[in-house]
Amino acid sequence: MALKIVKGSIDRMFDKNLQDLVRGIRNHKEDEAKYISTCIDEIKQELKQDNIAVKANAVCKLTYLQMLGYDVSWAAFNIVEVMSSSKFTYKRIGYLAASQCFHENTDVIMLTTNQIRKDLSSPNQYDTGVALTGLSCFVTPDLARDLANDIMTLMSHTKPYIRKKAVLIMYKVFLKYPESLRPAFPRLKEKLEDPDPGVQSAAVNVICELARRNPKNYLSLAPLFFKLMTSSTNNWVLIKIIKLFGALTPLEPRLGKKLIEPLTNLIHSTSAMSLLYECVNTVIAGQYSCSVGSVCLRISVVKYLGLLAMSKILKTHPKSVQSHKDLILQCLDDKDESIRLRALDLLYGMVSKKNLMEIVKKLMIHVDKAEGTTYRDELLTKIIDICSQSNYQYITNFEWYISILVELTRLEGTRHGHLIASQMLDVAIRVKAIRAFAVAQMATLLDNAHLLTGNMQRNGICEVLYAAAWICGEFSEHLENPVQTLEAMLRPKVATLPGHIQAVYVQNAAKLFATILKNQEGNTDSTAAQETSQLMIDRLPLFVQSANLEVQERASCILQLVKYIQKLQQKDVEVAEEVSALFAGELNPVAPKAQKKVPVPEGLDLDAWINEPPSESESEDEQPKAIFTKEEPKHSRPRHTEVDEKELARRREARKQEQANNPFYIKASPSSQKVYQETPGVEHIPVVQIDLSVPLKVPGLPMSDQYVKLEEERRQKERAEKKKKEKKKRKEKRSGRGKKHDSGPESEEDITPAHVVDIVTEEMPENALPSDDDDKDPNDPHKVCDIQGNLQDGSQVVVSVIFENKSDSFLKSMEFNVLDSLNSKLQRPEGSGPHDGLTVPFQLPPGVSNEARFVFTVQSIVMPQKLKGTLTFIVKDSSTHEKLDFKLHFTCTSYLITTPCYSDAFAKLLESGDLKSSSVRLEGVNMPFHHLLARICFHHHFSVVERIDSCASMYSRSIQGHHVCLLVKTSGQTVSIDAKCDEPTLLGNVLDEIKQTFSQC
Amino acid sequence: MRFMLLFSRQGKLRLQKWFTSMSDREKKKIIRDMTTMVLARQPRSCNFMQWKDLKIVYKRYASLYFCLGVESQENELLALEIIHRYVELLDKYFGNVCELDIIFNFEKAYFILDEFLMGGEVQETSKQIVNRSIEASDMLQEVRFTDMHQTLQDDRLE
Question: Where found (chain A) (predicted)?
Fold first, then answer.
């Protein structure tokens, strides 16, 4: 026996220990795999020995090899052997190996239960500790069930070292074996007040994790946590507690109010950035309206997180973010691309008419500086997104926008040529006033086309030429020097452009040709016209040879045409009129819904087969015969079952029920918040650096910068002149009662566009149907359901708007549109999007007024609301499209309905005690009491219940059934109003409005 | 927390700790993804990344990357603090820790981590207490070692 031990220990001297193994691996860099396989063989030998020290050494080496990625699952049983050693040194190694190598499906785990139990009850606290640590890594549902009781006892161990570990591992046990939560919870709760701070923080950790999964059950612990939060100085614990409160506040709004103070204190006092960040996050999530703005500044030290937090704030408090514009612009200079991209996302939501030019100017500077095409392209798309968002809402000067687009074409290597091109086309077509300018710019572009053709790839910058050629051709009457442009379009170099661009070149060269002929024929000198024809005839054959079918076809067609024209010209025949007739008529943009509005001509059945349908029986015959048994003849056609009315109603009810219960069923219109979507995974795109040593500057192109200055001057001038402008006036009314206008300080709406920006209306087919009636079946159960859903969701308010035409022109095609808020939405006909406008069903001759009604859905009526809106219309004479911005005020009063009430019912209501009271005093009211009452009744929809001398009680009801009771008393010039209502916010706002009414008289 | 990984600039794994049980295949996939993702980051870029539904928080100390995978609701800055605290603990234990210390004494590095974190939660926030418990268990180990040597020598004498 003794000999055996001696032999073992001598062997051991020659064994490799872990250090030797590591060193060996480092020395065998070339044949690592081979070296390790010999090591594994040695380890296998070592594991066969009886000596536990040798075994432990082997297991330790295996743990290292496991990390290097070698499979050691074959040694699982040896690991258990080492775990069960009585010596701490080996036990520790055994548990470490187990925690690294075991997972839930390791079968030997079930052998360990008794061993672990023994270790847990060991007198040595470190044995217990090691067992708990190991268990936390490989606990299985079986182990959790068998050991839950043992661990629970350990939670009240005398040593804090054990208590702490036991509390933490309980969380793992709960996850694997949820039944243990109920019996263990009281003890866990006790640990929140453990004298040892380590145990306490462990308990906070566990409960915080549990509460995140199911906050409702932990509301009762809120007071305890509140106490901990105000007393604890441990930041690690504080962060967890604040996170926990973040999960609890949505369930208990009162908690939010209570938290504001300690949270603000922490925000202003703490120096730990992580704690500050946690506080801010909770504040944002709770949407407390405390001073978030000041916090953003501090948090912005950690830029990425700051930007992330800001984008959250932007959704709720856009104003407070806008003041940090400069800071966000600075972030664009950051080295880290992900920070820059976040900042860009924020900018998108921040632009307004006032700051658009400034922001875009800054972005343009960044475009010039930017390294790497990916980021530059991102900037480019963002610029275009920002400018074009909501139908160019923020652009006041389109000349500026065109020059921005032209400047963007100088970007080398961009993949967004197509995007720029489509923007150019869109603007040039829809904004009539800009066409002359746009054409001039495009002509310069065509002249300098050689600068753009460096990048021939698809979607490269050469796409811009597509737009340029089309614009020059289509609006050629605006060209200053059409011959030069024609010459530019027919250069031999054009043949290197992609086919679809060449095709446009050829077609538009013909348009240009027509215009030139028209101009020149007026002159007496006919040689100029003939020279132009000759130019065409000389250059077009190049395109006739093109490999592209489209180019070839158009070119040869036009070539023959020009040859014929030349023949006529030589006979001195006037041809210009006829040639330009080829391209007469203006192309207008078509509304996306236009096709839908074309009525189907009578007698056309779209469902009918044009040719004989392939017979179904034929295909059935071809089906393979059943091999084994003859199949039951299936009902090849679904049997048309007659469903009676009752059954239909029942199904409808069931479906409604199901939809109501299904959280994923979206009832309301889709939200418009896609603005804030993150751009996923951009940072993974490998960035290719492109050396751009020569700055590309096209001579003669305007710099967009000058517009920023011009715009500033223009606005100044306009502010002075503004009052003179006569415009249509609109009134907002409800039930015929007038309301005041908003005439605050200069707001967004007051910035009028530079030159009249007539956005040309989108063309509808002539025989379009007037209504938006979609192809919906009136019996469709879903439709009925939708309408009911709306009624349940909120209250409907009808707003009558009086349109009065104060101008001298005839106005038509008026479209009324309101920017919906979360609370109030304009009801639009089914099938239209959330941003579509409603057509006003009449036209307005000069000096005439008319009333239209619009239905709004309002969720909460306790607060007054302002909605922004626009009215677009066409002035008939100039057929230009203009718009008028306005604001709709929804005062709280407008939700009240005059409802008569008898004095006994009134008294009962006051006695019920359900109403909250509030009061207001009006000083210096100089009018007879009955006038005063009449005023309240008239302006605020109340009715007098009872009047005794200088005292009166009044009553009104809101459309959502809130009772509002007033007791009005007067003595001399002072009027006091005591009021009661079951909704304190509503009451406060109504009283404010009453006060305002009297302050105006 | 889901996992903590330590790896070198060359992408060699130096330490791995999994706080939830995972199969070897999953582990290998995560390790591969993390090393390629983190090593591809430019110097001076920010320490947070999104990976599937997890937040990856990493920090580089000398030639070693410390990489922590946390759930998306977790506080990123707290995760950074955790990494830093662990480095402090290693530094205290080894005395000016370097990569080689961790390679050759990797089991010690694990023992320290086990005293600091457990089951993906912070177990002890006080540095002193962590150090004390590590020293105490090491002492225990030393005692046993000398015991063993004693017995071996006794055996030989017989």
Answer: Cytoplasm; Golgi apparatus membrane
Chain A residues within an 8 Å CB radius of B86: none
Cα–Cα distance for residue pair A840/A816, rounded to 1 Å = 6
Chain A nearest-CA distance from B65, in A, is 16
Chain B environment of A210 (Cβ under 8 Å): none
Q: Binning pLDDT at 50, 70 and 90, where does residue B6 land?
A: very high
Query: Residue A913 corresponds to which tokens in the numbers above?
Result: 């005690």
List domains and CATH numbers for chain B.
3-155 (3.30.450.60)
**Are the beta carbons of A168 and B123 separated by less than 8 Å?**
yes
In this structure, is residue A799 part of a structural domain?
yes
Q: Which of A21, A205, A677 to mutate to test the interface with B (most CBs of B within 10 A)?
A: A205
Number of separate domains in chain A: 2
CATH number of A973's domain: 3.30.310.10
Which chain A residues touch B30 with a CB distance below 8 Å?
A: none
What value of ipTM does the predicted structure carry? 0.89
DSSP H or E stretch at residue A896: strand A896-897
- Indicate whether A500 belongs to any domain: no
- Residue A818 and residue A882 in one domain: yes
pLDDT digits (tens, 9 = 90+) for A302-324: 556 666 666 666 666 666 666 66
Residues of B in contact with A64 (CB under 8 A): 106
Domain CATH for A804: 2.60.40.10
> What is the Cα–Cα distance from A147 to A491, expressed in whole angstroms?
87
Best B46, B53, B147 residue to mutate vs chain A (most A CBs within 10 Å): B46
Question: Is the pLDDT confidence value at A341 over 80?
Answer: no
Measured between beta carbons, which residues in chain A are less than 8 angstroms from residue B13? 67-69
With beta carbons under 8 A apart, name residues in chain A contacting B110: 96, 100
pLDDT per residue as tens digits for the range A102-127? 887 788 888 888 889 988 888 888 88
Same domain, A950 and A994: yes
Is B107 in Cβ contact with A18 (below 8 Å)?
A: yes
Backbone angles phi, psi at A880, to 5 degrees: -100, 155
The distance of B128 to chain A (nearest Cα, Å) reads 12
A973, A978, A984, A989 alpha-carbon torsion, rounded to 10°: -20
Q: What is the pLDDT of residues B111-151, one digit of tens each?
A: 999 889 988 888 888 888 888 888 888 887 766 555 555 55
- Same domain for A907 and A819, yes or no, is no
Taking the Cβ of residue B139 and every Cβ of chain A, the question of whether any pair is shorter than 8 Å is answered with: no
Which among A841, A873, A890 is the end of a domain? Answer: A890
User: Which residues span the domain enclosing A937?
Assistant: 898-1000
Q: What length is written for chain A?
A: 1001
A885 and A903 fall within a common domain: no
A9 in B contact zone (CB under 8 Å):
yes
> Does A419 have pLDDT greater than 80?
yes
Range ranked top by mean pLDDT from A41-50, A623-632, A714-723: A41-50
> Are residues A832 and A789 part of one domain?
yes
What span, in angstroms and rounded, lies between the C-alpha atoms of A317 and A321? 7
- Say which of A2, A205, A303 has its CB closest to residue B121: A205
Residue A862 and residue A832 share a domain: yes
Q: Is residue A981 part of a domain?
A: yes
| Of A831, A856, A890, the domain-final residue | A890
Contact between chains at A165 and B15 (C-beta distance less than 8 A): no
| Same structural domain, A874 and A951 | no
Mean pLDDT of A630-650: 54
* C-beta pairs of A517-525 under 8 Å, 24+ apart in sequence: A517/A565, A517/A575, A517/A576, A517/A579, A517/A580, A518/A576, A518/A577, A518/A579, A518/A580, A519/A482, A520/A576, A521/A574, A521/A575, A521/A576
Looking at the structure, do residues A905 and A992 belong to the same domain, yes or no?
yes
* Among chain A residues, CA nearest to B71: A209
